[in-house]
User: What shape does this take?
Amino acid sequence: VIMKNFNHERWGFVVQANRFSRVLLEESWTYSNKRSTFGKKLSEHPVIRWKLAEMARLVESTHNWLENLTYQLCKMPKDQAMNTLGGPIALMKAHSSKVMEYCSREARQIFGGNGYTRSGLGEKVERLYRDVGAYAIPGGSEEILLDLSIRQGMKSKL
Assistant: This one.
């Protein structure tokens, strides 16, 4: 019963965490094209491009996973969806908060000192870095959700 009640709440947290991860990527992308170091834009440094690529890879794959599970939630009969998708939704929620944590850390690295300011260029990055825990804990902590997803998978013999 508890697993079923949390499915839509967890789905909502995935939507939010993925959107904020995308904001972190967008802010980092824009900043890296404005800020210059050693005579060139940050985005011209291979390590910065790698950080942006990793963030994009994680954000886009999470979005695809979200779209896939959303489609299943919409098309399956409610009882079947609640029983079948509890594990995958739990796994996706844990994944999305880890992606948000990763993107916030990398964005802070790209922003440097500006990523620590509550106003100015790094305002969004600083705020989202602080807010990561607010998305990782509600609906079940990552460790609990990862365990739940495996237990559900074992029950369904996936």
